[in-house]
Amino acid sequence: MPVVQSRIRVPVPPEVAFAVSQTTGAVRRRWDVFIREQHFLDGASEPATGVRTFTRQRLGPSMVSRYVSYAPPRNVGMVMERGPWFFDRLGAGWRFEADGEGTVATWKYSFTCRPRFLAPVAERIGRVLLGREIRARIEGFARGCGDPVVLAAVRPGGQT
Fold this sequence. Notes:
CATH topology: Alpha-D-Glucose-1,6-Bisphosphate, Chain A, domain 4
Shape: globular
Strand order of the largest sheet: 1-7-6-5-4-3-2
Distance between the termini: 33 Å
Oligomer: single chain
Number of domains: 1
CATH superfamily: START domain
Radius of gyration: 15 Å
Strand content: 35-45%
């Protein structure tokens, strides 16, 4: 299964970095270059294991994903339940490690493509495209970790 990942150091503690990574709506769009729309499904109002989300990418494709792990402030994992036809499977995860007065955040995607006979070529292309995407997204995340509006939203009482 192909894997792409990107890592960055941000000048906030793991609790804040984790909270920024889990923002939704307008707050999320301030930093995430990928998202045009994202919200919880099935009446959920916050992330947790088993919660499903709808995400529409800025270029149009959408997916429904489900949290398979949610362990603040260390890690979170999600899997795609429904999405673009060319993904057979897609999973994503964040890991946060304290680093002095900041945090090292790692964002990873793992995926397989279909149809199987095209997978060798599609997965090579996917590594390149998803690698570029995840690097842009984690750089946006780092900007979000310095954005006063995003930081205010993740503080207790803020609106994520």
